Amino acid sequence: MTETLLDVRDLVVRYGPVTAVDGVSFSLAAGETLALNGPSGCGKSSTALAVLQLRRPSGGEVLFEGKELTSLTERELRPLRPRMQPVFQDPYGSLSPRHRIRDAISEPLRVQGRWHPTDGPARVAELLDRVGLDPAYGDRLPHELSGGQCQRAGIARALASDPRLLVLDEPVSSLDPSVRAGVLNLLADLQDDLGLGYLFICHDRAVVRHFADRVIEMRDGRVTSGQRPRSPGAAPR
User: Fold this and answer.
1) Which residue of 14, 123, 144, 237 has the smallest Cβ count within 10 Å?
2) pTM of this prediction?
């Protein structure tokens, strides 16, 4: 039986008087990609932030690996955060322009107390290689990389924490069409190798149709249609 990694129940997110997410529910299994699809402003990103507890929800429940997150304090959340990592839309904006790529990737390990001077550099090189980048790119600053290379570095940084869930918020929307397929193929290969669950936020129906196992359509903060499966054989490989 497939393990349920994430279970969201009647999620509500409010910004003052505005309800951005209104009673959204879904589940995600380990090794599965679930896409939230819909127009800009429909509540996709607010849902993602609430799942990660980067924006505390106004109502509902978020269960990750069977543990209910919304009732936990920030201190209680801390050991769970490495296991659910975001990958953001803007590959340059998500990396500090003053930090070299190797430092961006090693930062999670340092914060979590898992950095070892003897084998840490080798771990960074391994992560760069895993996402298809020459380990020598670790010496570069973000502006010295292309958008696709920066996004691969952002994925490597997320993998440094050994997560089980990646929340991918429009991860290819800012990339050139010629680069998107390579990043999506990388994500598919990582999922196959590591059994990661993906919550995939995307407004592009063509990308969603080819990449996601199931799709939830959202509009005005609500789910408007069920969880339809991906077309057979459609995933890019």
Assistant:
1) 237
2) 0.91
